[in-house]
Amino acid sequence: MAGVLKSGIKNIIFDLGDVIIPIDLRGPIRNFAVLSGLSEDEVESLWREHGLTLQYETGLIDDAGFRQHVRQLLKNDTWADEVIDTAWNTVLLDLPIERVQRIQELHGQYRLFLLSNTSAIHIAKVNKIFAELGQPVLEDLFERVYYSYEVKLAKPSPEIYQYVLNTSGLKAEETLFLDDNPHNIRAAAELGIQAVQVQPPLTILDYLRDESTNEDVPHSS
């Protein structure tokens, strides 16, 4: 696997889930199924029918609104906020500290950014995980963070990539974007961003190898 830190790259935009911190997308479904007594399929169907994740991650509803929607959908108005937050955050797995350390090594060599489809509850938990492990919170790790719920746009919408480029003064051809989702990669590449899909079992440690060992690689599309 050749690295992707090629000549001409000045900026790196990172996705969060499964790029920096591993995630289990079905974790919340499993946990809400246990809490509600419904099957995982029933919970997943309700989630999709009402578009709850997208509403929350694009800022159409806030934390309190999200929790209330969960109580209504799963027919339990007695759940405390902490119960819902804990189940929602089971999407987050253990943080490989070496990934954070590699990002820190890139400071001063590149302008570093984060672009994530996420929610405020998740970000609060991620920052708590980072702090407990003695690592800088996301807002300190990157020059600027872009959260979908704050900008009210979500990947793979072209508008969110253009927003990042415009507000941070980035040139697409000088910008590397690392994401695990092929749809997100394709959308970024169509704008001229040097988009590369992070595909397990490889991690950003494989893609962001020292430049002296890199070979040129084709862009994902």
Automatic annotation (TrEMBL):
<dbReference type="InterPro" id="IPR023214">
    <property type="entry name" value="HAD_sf"/>
</dbReference>
<keyword id="KW-0378">Hydrolase</keyword>
<dbReference type="Pfam" id="PF00702">
    <property type="entry name" value="Hydrolase"/>
</dbReference>
<dbReference type="InterPro" id="IPR036412">
    <property type="entry name" value="HAD-like_sf"/>
</dbReference>
<dbReference type="InterPro" id="IPR023198">
    <property type="entry name" value="PGP-like_dom2"/>
</dbReference>
<dbReference type="InterPro" id="IPR006439">
    <property type="entry name" value="HAD-SF_hydro_IA"/>
</dbReference>
<protein>
    <submittedName>
        <fullName>Putative hydrolase of the HAD superfamily</fullName>
    </submittedName>
</protein>
<dbReference type="GO" id="GO:0016787">
    <property type="term" value="F:hydrolase activity"/>
</dbReference>
